[in-house]
Amino acid sequence: MDYSIFKFGALYLDDKIQPVPQQPEIDGDIPQYDGKASISLGTLASEGINWIKPIDSNLLVADRVLLTKVSWEDLDKDGLVAGKTVLLNGQHFRCRLLQVGDEEGVPNEWDKVLYKTVGDNSLWHWENIFFWGADISAYNVSYRAVRGYSSARYWYNYRATFRHVNVGFRPALEPLPSDTPTTDINLDGVNFQLSSLPGGEGFCPILQPAQGNVFKDIPVGRKVRMYTFLEGGKPIHVGATVKDISKLTLADSYYGDEYLVPWVISNGIAIASQSFPKKSQ
User: Fold this and answer.
1) 154: CB partners within 8 A, 6+ apart
2) pTM
3) What is the dihedral of CA 190, 193, 98, 25, to 10 degrees?
4) What residues does 261 pair with on adjacent strands?
5) Which of 25, 26, 123, 242 has its CA 20 to 30 A from that of 210?
6) Interior angle at CA 151, CA 72 and CA 175, nearest 5
7) What is the pLDDT of residue 216?
8) pLDDT per residue over 157-196, tens digit each?
């Protein structure tokens, strides 16, 4: 599979948790914005939002629109266009809108996500609902780009102040470093914290320097290959099914290029390009 699914976090209006819609379309059950409440994301003890992480990406994208009758300006007021820091299930993220193109056909994050996964409505729930992108329309500075509704790749634009049940909020998350990393492992003389993205059925490693930042000059989204995971002392490929995730170890010894872990840099930390799924019992 070319993506992993994670389930965590909730949408809040002020301090009230909003249900994840089960019919995320114009005539469905998407929560509607009242025009007043503060919009935010927070931790939820159970269930949660489905996030799709394509292979070789540092982005997690909500698999559906979570809030409708909300304007681009409403989202911008709460810092959710360019992005704001949120803490979800112990992991810091930047929550923001995707870049979807300032006009049809230009390179953008949404089309890249679709290319790396599939554009099926069963995965991305784009049918009969638009979602806001971060982009100012190339045709009018008062308008903002939206995507979806009639096809996964359909592009349109609305005035930034537009509120309607046919357009809503689909957030994306960029993993951020912890403010207080602990040392779990030493690799090539550097102390690292080794953790995992929350809410997954397997293990999606996050590697953060515990002191200093050896990744600080590497651009967000850049892919690097380094270190090797071992199971029972033997090297394994990233994405391999493992019996006991708790017994995986990360080594700085060289076992061959094919075992080097592919990582994606995300704001000074490294995210594994894909998860290790658990072996079925």
Assistant:
1) 147, 148
2) 0.95
3) 160
4) 226
5) 242
6) 55
7) 87
8) 999 999 999 999 999 999 999 999 999 999 999 999 999 9
Question: Is 164 or 281 the better-scoring residue by pLDDT?
Answer: 164
Amino acid at 186: N
Strands (E), 9-142: 10-13, 16-18, 39-42, 49-54, 60-62, 67-68, 84-88, 91-96, 130-136
Q: What percent of the chain has pLDDT over 70?
A: 99
Give per-residue burial for 53-84: e unless 16+ CB within 10 Å, then b: bbbebbbbbbbbbbbbbbbbebbbeebbbebe
> Which pLDDT does position 243 carry in this prediction?
87
Contact of 173 with 57, CB cutoff 8 Å:
no
Q: Look at residue 220 and tell me whether its pLDDT is greater than 80.
A: yes
Only one residue has tokens 């949120």, namely: 86
**Distance, CA of 44 to CA of 21 (rounded, Å):** 15
Contacts of 71 (CB under 8 A, 6+ apart): 160, 161, 162, 163
User: Whose CA is closest to 266, among 182, 171, 176, 172?
Assistant: 176
